[in-house]
Write a structure and sequence with these properties.
The complex is a heterodimer of chains A (148) and B (69). Chain A is an all-alpha fold and 148 residues long. Chain A contains 4 helices and no strands. The radius of gyration of chain B is 11 Å and the shape is globular. Classes of the chains: A mainly alpha (148), B mainly alpha (69).
Chain lengths: 148, 69
């Protein structure tokens, strides 16, 4: 497993952890009525902004843990942080899938708005598109690393 | 199509005194996993990388890589 494949695993696990936390917050907001409150969107936006530093911290911690685990398992002390043309090709294909899913999420959000749902739901759908796109892109990259 | 491109990397590594995949990877500036994937014909390298691999063995390109219809 090269460093880029390892980083993809880290990104996948990191986004699962952070998104689990985010969707839990959204779930709570739906159930305590925040989603319908006048400042519901502001609270939603603050939660999204919190996702950024939380995501960075979780990714750094997981990257360190993954490097340590890899060194212990393989006995390779020096981690080879190298990205070559194969990594870049897989990254490009993963990005393509991510973009398609993101656009689908945006279209779903616009459709939901047109059908009369709240901005809270529409913004959550957009975020869902991003997170699902990220997940799909990372899964595709891992599949490519395993099979090509 | 990746499966149309075959290669003789394994044989050339053997001829070069059992050069390891890691050695070849270091010479051409890619990861060992990429050399493994190319050698197994799972990944088709760029033209530039193909030339670099051939040059690492001191062979012309078509001694190392072949395209079959």
């Amino acid at each position: 497993m090269n460093s880029e494949e390892r980083n993809t695993w880290v990104a996948l696990i990191s986004s699962l952890i952070v998104n689990a936390w985010f969707y839990r917050q959204i779930w709570i907001m739906f159930h305590n009525g925040t989603s319908l409150a006048p400042d519901g969107l502001q609270i939603w936006a603050r939660t999204v902004i919190w996702v950024i530093p939380v995501s960075i911290i979780v990714t750094i911690v997981l990257t360190i843990l993954a490097s340590m685990l890899y060194a212990v398992v393989t006995g390779e002390r020096a981690a080879a942080f190298m990205k070559d043309e194969r990594d870049r090709q897989f990254q490009l294909w993963g990005l393509g899938v991510t973009m398609i899913v993101c656009v689908a999420g945006f279209l779903a959000a616009m459709t939901s708005l047109a059908l009369g749902t709240s901005g809270f739901v529409a913004f959550t759908l957009i975020y869902f598109g991003f997170s699902l796109g990220d997940l799909a892109g990372n899964l595709l990259k891992l599949a490519l690393y395993r099979n090509r | 199509m990746a499966h149309n491109i075959t290669n003789q990397i394994r044989r050339h590594r053997f001829d070069a005194g059992e050069m390891t995949q890691a050695d070849l990877a270091a010479r051409v500036g890619v990861t060992r996993q990429t050399i493994m994937a190319i050698e197994a014909a799972k990944y088709s390298p760029s033209l530039e990388l193909a030339f670099q691999i051939a040059r690492a063995f001191g062979k012309p390109l078509d001694d190392v890589f072949q395209y079959t219809e």
